[in-house]
UniProtKB/TrEMBL annotation:
Keywords: Membrane, Transmembrane, Transmembrane helix. The chain crosses the membrane at residues 12-35. This is Glycosyltransferase 2-like domain-containing protein. Coiled coil: none annotated. SUPFAM superfamilies: Nucleotide-diphospho-sugar transferases. Residues 50-126 form the Glycosyltransferase 2-like domain.
Length: 134
């Protein structure tokens, strides 16, 4: 009786290990033949708006704006907007020299969400994607 139970357990373990081995072999063998993927190029490039809110960040905002402009996407479909809240006039002048759009906001209670909402009211609806860098 015990021998019969032992043979049944051995058979179950053998079936499990055989199934696992065959399963692994099938997928390992199929990995030798990579799928040929279709190269999908987009039909049109999406127009992207990059919003960078800042509150008295005069020391770093010019470098951040320059890095945000340093993209390979194309300037006709990619706009960088700096939301200037409490910036010095010379910082705003240097931002305009590097060809970013500057939206100046003066809010009674400055928060990031209020600055973003004020900036979005001043932009047009021609953008497909809006990204906030902070």
């Amino acid at each position: 009786m015990i021998l019969k139970i032992w043979h049944t357990v051995e058979l179950i373990v053998f079936i499990y290990l055989a199934f696992t081995g065959i399963y692994l072999f099938i997928f390992a063998f199929s990995g030798l033949f990579p799928l040929k993927r279709k190269n999908k190029t987009p039909r049109k490039k999406r127009k992207i708006l990059v919003l960078i809110p800042g509150y008295r960040e005069d020391a770093v905002i010019v470098d951040v704006a320059g890095e945000a402009l340093n993209q390979d996407y194309g300037t006709e479909n990619y706009d960088v907007v700096i939301i200037a809240d409490g910036f010095k006039p010379e910082t705003i002048t240097s931002l305009k020299k590097i060809h970013v759009r500057v939206i100046e906001v003066q809010l009674k209670y400055s928060t990031k969400s209020r600055a973003l909402n004020a900036a979005l009211e001043q932009t047009d609806d021609s953008y497909d994607v809006a990204v906030v860098l902070d």
